[in-house]
Amino acid sequence: MFVFGTLGTGRAGNGASEEGGGMPKRTFSPDGLRFRAVGLRTGLLALAVLGLPAVLASSPTPAGATSARAAVTSGVLPLQAVSCHTATSCEAVGEVANVAGGTVVGTTDGGTTWKRRTQPAGVGALFGVDCASATTCDVVGSGNGDAGAIYRTTDRGTQWTTEPVTLVGGYFLAIACPSKAVCEATGNGGTIVGTVNGGATWKHQSVPPGANLVEGIACPSAQTCEAVGYGAPALHTSDGGTTWTKQSVPPNVSFLSAVACPTVKTCVAVGSKSVHGGHKQVGVVIRTHNGGATWTIQRIPPGLNDLSGISCPSVSDCEAVGDGDITALGTTDGGAAWTPQGVPSSVESLAGVACPSVSDCEAVGLTGSGDGAAVGTTDGGATWTLQRLPGA
User: Fold this and answer.
1) Distance CA 290, CA 158 (A)
2) What CATH code is carried by the domain that includes residue 193?
3) 247 lies in which domain range?
4) Secondary structure tally for the chain: helices H, strands E
5) Degrees (nearest 5) of the Cα angle 78, 318, 239?
6) Which end of the chain is more exposed for a tag (fewer CB within 10 A), N or C?
7) Tell me: the pLDDT tens digits for 342-376?
8) What is the number of alpha carbons within 13 Å of residue 64 lying toward its C-beta?
């Protein structure tokens, strides 16, 4: 069994400002081998590069250890992803401190209160979520036996169904559901699976050679999806996954971690690019207006080690989140200008963001003390407010 972890000091290990040609760094956490925030991606990327199975492990917090911000996040480990069907209805996924398995938390009042949902049976860590309605959501991650698993709820997390699909030796990392019937899920090993009957059956889809870690996906329609990751950074389908085509991205774009497509032709993807001759990684945003036939790098402010989440409620408006001196930035003009946004200082990094409207967004990640964090805005990112998460 190969185990991978990130250092529990400094910023979350997400493979961003690492030396050595972009290769993520393997380190040991003093409180056990654990992935913090988007550090999961670093581990899976390294495993993908090395050709090793994606088996992760975590250890409980040492006895007597307490969180410096327990009143805010008490016991919820880094949240990895969030989906908002409306401005008030959102679900987020991640891990639970001192408890085996993943967690789902949800809000029905725009983040004023978050409540823990029932934990899916046999679930491991959870890394992706998409809600086709206020009550129907699919979440992805790992299940029994360190195999990738997908779970669905139709009653806002009271009960969960384990979908009849697994990813042996790997994890599912992202999911997009343009309707209750149609979903596409991605994972490591170049895995993409799809369903057209609400998860009753899933089909493994063929991807181009070279695709390895597929970490983000967006489906603006039932037929059209864009997937991003490592190995083959951008993949496109216009026939519901029957065929996937590899797309060219700008030079030095080494990894793409998330993508948002407000239309079938317009998509924005985020991740990291190599600079200084490949000795450093910094955040990158790329955009297409023609369904991925061509992608262009957009100019963003300095200070971002990495970008891990993107949401675009319109062609003009997008919010991106990540790690570095800046953890959130937004555009209102289609990316001609990206503006850094102020996030509460207790937030260390953000892993995912969802914007059901141009003014309302929720973002999730972790605090400087290693707890999960959720922040919300109702004014398009001009102000972000730290929200209280339920304790373990």
Assistant:
1) 41
2) 2.130.10.10
3) 70-387
4) 2, 28
5) 90
6) N
7) 999 999 999 999 999 999 999 999 998 888 999 99
8) 0
